[in-house]
Amino acid sequence: MPSLVYKGGDTVILDFNVINKSAVPIKNICAKLCERTHFHARNQHTPCKEFTFHTCPLGYFGQEYTCRKIGSVCTKRVDIPPYSTQSVTLAVVIPETVKTPSFESGLITHGYLFELGVQAQGSWFAQYMTAKIYIGDKKGDEDEDEPKVTMKEMLLQNAPPPAYTP
């Protein structure tokens, strides 16, 4: 992925480097965008950075997860023979309806991820791994039109008042 920050309507180019170490060919690669939210029963001093139960400081009954697929699964038919390597590119469009930006707080962590998978010949389901992405604006994009101020200039602008002389 060329970036980790996207907006609705952006096209994400996913480059797969598939190493097939099995005795059966790989027939599909796929990607699906998911929206995931992690809730706490009480406020935490720091937000959870991951979307897994074992990284949260609260017990099983003190936390909750929701996950839902956004849009349709993007699938590409491939033919990767056994014991071989192949590079495959898959383009996924983030739907325009994705409006809620990624955010973290002591109560809620809300974000997005891609489930990236491969499906072997003869299997019903794909084996997935996840890749976290962020929806929203990159930090600092809104300040690009403002002139850059060096540290020396900032210190001179915020100079303390002259010393008191009686």
Automatic annotation (TrEMBL):
Gene3D superfamilies: 2.60.40.640
Arrestin C-terminal-like domain residues: 1-136
Bias kind Basic and acidic residues: ranges: 139-151
Stretch list, region Disordered: 139-166
Pfam families hit by this protein: Arrestin_C
SUPFAM superfamilies: E set domains
Protein name, as recorded: Arrestin C-terminal-like domain-containing protein
Organism: Caenorhabditis brenneri
